[in-house]
SRPBCC domain-containing protein (Aquipuribacter nitratireducens), 162 residues
Amino acid sequence: MPVTDVTHDIDTLTLTIVAEFAAPVERIWQVYADPRQLEKVFGPPTYPATFVDHALTPGSRSTYYMTSPEGEKFAGVWDIQTVEPTTRFTFEDAFADEHFEVNPDLPVSHNSYSFTAHDGGTRATYVSTYASAEALQQVLDMGVVEGASAAINQIDDLLAAV
C-alpha cells in the first residue's frame, strides 16, 4: 500500500497524506495530468470518478463526479492555481451540484500535491488546508481519510497495468 502516513492537525487546519510509489516522479505526474488515468485513482474504488474537464494549467477548472454503487453522482471542482510540471500543483477543491456550481454549504479545501524522488521511486505529499477547524472536522466525519487513502492506494494497480 502506497499510503505511509496520514495526519490531521486541527491547530493548522490541515490534513496531510504521504504516499510512496515504486515509479519515477514523471510517471506519477502523468497519473494526475491525464484525466483518463486520474479517474482510475481519484475517489474510492466503490465511487469511481469521471473527469468531464481536466487540464493542469493555472487558472483552469477541472470538473468531475464520483458515482456511488447505487448510481448517485457526487460532483466537485478543482480550480487549478499553480503548476510546476512533474513536481507540484495547487488547487482549490470544492463540492458542487450537478451543474458544477460550488455548494456553499460544504467545505472548500486548498490543496498542494507535491512529488519528489525518494529511494528510487516517488514520495507524494498531499496537503489539504481548510478555512476552519469545523470545516476540517466536517470532512473528517464524512470519511475523507478513508476515501482518500483508498483512492491513493489504487495507484499501484494503475502503474502495474500500464
The domain at 3-161 is CATH 3.30.530.20 (Alpha-D-Glucose-1,6-Bisphosphate; Chain A, domain 4).
